[in-house]
């Protein structure tokens, strides 16, 4: 089974990786699209969580340092600190805190274009070796 890069979920959200130069860290951007707004006119939390998950998953993969493995999210905690407005440019900075042979712990933040903290997350990923 081949991997699609970028995956459809990232394409749907309009996620764009802007930096992956440091192993275990990735930085992503997304324009807060009105399609993702809740009835109150702000970006629905599930879409912010998806941005956090995709960003942290990519960071977990880059922390593998050449190991051929798939990573799966085992758990994720998200804290929403303020609403993201439609049209905002959101930036997610995801960093691997610890990368073991099986368990990878990652944290991330989302800020808007004014550097206001929108959400934070932490997640545990499980790495499973793949044959190809």
What does this structure look like?
By secondary structure, the chain is of the alpha+beta class. The chain has a single domain, classed as Thiol Ester Dehydrase, Chain A (Roll), CATH 3.10.129. The chain is built from 2 helices and 6 strands; from the N terminus they run αββαββββ. It has helices at 8-13, 45-62, and strands spanning 16-19, 25-31, 69-80, 89-99, 103-111, 117-129. A 6-stranded antiparallel β-sheet has the order 1-2-4-5-6-3. A hairpin with a 5-residue loop joins β5 and β6. The longest helix is centred in the middle third of the chain and has 18 residues, at 45-62. It is elongated. The termini are close together. The model has no long low-confidence stretch (mean pLDDT 91).
Helix share, percent: 10-25%
Helical/strand content category: alpha+beta
The CATH first-level class comes to: Alpha Beta
Q: Determine the number of helices (DSSP H or I, runs of at least 4 residues).
A: 2
Count of all domains = 1
Indicate the CATH architecture: Roll
CATH superfamily: Hotdog Thioesterase
Main sheet summary = 6 strands, antiparallel
Q: What proportion of the residues form beta strands (DSSP E)? A: 35-45%
- The ordered H/E elements are HEEHEEEE
Q: Uncertain spans, ≥5 residues at pLDDT below 50?
A: none
Q: Say what the CATH topology is.
A: Thiol Ester Dehydrase, Chain A
The shape is elongated
What distance lies between the first and last C-alpha atoms, to the nearest angstrom?
8 Å
Mean pLDDT: 91
Query: Strands across the major sheet, in which order?
Result: 1-2-4-5-6-3
């Amino acid at each position: 089974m081949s991997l699609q890069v970028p995956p459809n979920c990232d394409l749907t959200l309009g996620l764009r990786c802007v930096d992956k130069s440091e192993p275990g860290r990735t930085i992503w951007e997304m324009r807060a699209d009105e399609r993702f707004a809740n009835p109150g006119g702000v970006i629905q939390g599930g879409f912010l969580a998806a941005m956090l998950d995709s960003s942290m998953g990519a960071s977990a993969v880059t922390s593998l340092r050449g190991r051929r493995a798939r990573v799966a999210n085992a758990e994720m905690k998200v804290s929403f600190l303020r609403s993201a407005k439609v049209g905002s440019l959101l930036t997610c900075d995801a960093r691997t805190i610890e990368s073991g042979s099986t368990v990878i712990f990652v944290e991330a933040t989302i800020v808007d274009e004014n550097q206001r903290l929108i959400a934070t997350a932490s997640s545990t990923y499980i790495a499973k070796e793949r044959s190809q």
